[in-house]
Amino acid sequence: MKNKQASEIFREFLKKGNNRITPERFEILDAALEFDGHFSADDLFIAMKNNNSRVSRATVYNTLELLTQAELLSVRNFGYKVNRYESAFKRQNHYHLVCIDCGRIVEFTEAKLENISEEISTKLGFEASSHSFNIFARCNKKTNCPYYDRKHNS
Ligand SMILES: [Zn+2]
Ligand SMILES: [Zn+2]
Fold first, then answer.
1. Is the pTM of this model over 0.90?
2. pLDDT (tens digit, 9 = 90+) per residue, 74-97?
3. Where are the domains of the chain?
4. Which ligand is nearest to the CA of 97?
5. Among 3, 32, 68, 131, which residue's beta carbon has the most beta carbons within 10 A?
6. Which residues crowd ion ligand 1, with CB under 5 Å?
């Protein structure tokens, strides 16, 4: 186990929910926390297979679900059919800019958005739990985007 503290959190979570504690689940935890960027369940499954892991696709899918419930991962929907995951362990809340042409994702933080989520929730009789904010845009520099020419010259 590479991520000791996260493993402890996950173990407690599994125990509390009467979920089975299996080595595969911790293998998936490590692989997920080490995955760079935003990944789909299949991205992770393929990466693990390439590392000679013997986990099944079904185990990857349901463990990602559990890791999200344990708040060790965040699940994102960037407007594609598949959800993306990313580590939430020791990470600050952040937002995303997504290029609708090439899919490039840039992360940013913005204190104003934190405040506004609380303000609106309180005003409307809620207690804010979490929020997400995505901006869908187009890269404005050719060097960043393989689709730039196609979209800007036609
Ligand atoms: Zn992110
Ligand atoms: Zn782009």
1. no
2. 999 887 788 999 999 988 889 999
3. 1-90, 92-154
4. 1
5. 32
6. 86, 107
